Amino acid sequence: MNEREDYFRISKNGDIHTLNDRIPFRWKELMVFTSTSFIFLILMFEWFVGIFIALLTLICYFLYRFASWIYYSEIKIDERSGKITRLKKILDRTQSTELIAEKFDPNRFEYSELTRSGKTKFLMSYRTHKDNELLIIKNKTDKELIEKYITEKITVYNNV
Asked: What is the CA radius of gyration of the chain?
């Protein structure tokens, strides 16, 4: 499994900036991971047990990657209206829309540090009357990239 996978994307379409957490589905990665685990499992166990465990691994990993590709969320920031919304989607169809704030303020983003298993991750949240948890960021470089994009690239026109 790739430690540096694409777990978020930032894009702009007109006046709308989108932060998307859809993990891409790659057949090549799926085949490489399962074939290497298949070889190691056959070497560690006998043929029948190795093939059985490798097939279970293939099925579980396939279901995990497929589910993370199907179900995802998008954070949309509209420069014209100043609204920030979260859309939860299944297969490109919007299942729910949540208005996070009427007026976007880049200073309301907070990044809480999470340390688990010796790795430091960051929880990106937007503070309004409640705490809106948006994305788990896997490293400090990605956190800085997102912070820089939000502060430098997003300019709200109608923020009165």
From this structure: 20
CB neighbours of 22 closer than 8 A, spacing ≥ 6? 9, 68, 69, 72
User: Taking a C-beta distance cutoff of 8 angstroms, is the pair 85, 76 a contact?
Assistant: yes
For the entire predicted model, the pTM comes to 0.75
Tell me the pairing of strands 93-101 and 131-137. Answer: unpaired
Q: Encode pLDDT of 91-126 as tens digits.
A: 889 999 999 999 988 889 999 999 888 888 999 999
* Cβ burial 1-37 (10 Å sphere, 16+ → b, else e): eeeeeebbeeeeeeeebebbbbbeeeeeeeeebbeeb
Q: Could you read off the pLDDT of 6-46 as tens digits, one per residue?
A: 778 888 898 899 988 887 777 787 778 777 877 887 788 77
Strand partners, 89: 72, 94
- Cβ distance 116 to 108 under 8 Å? no
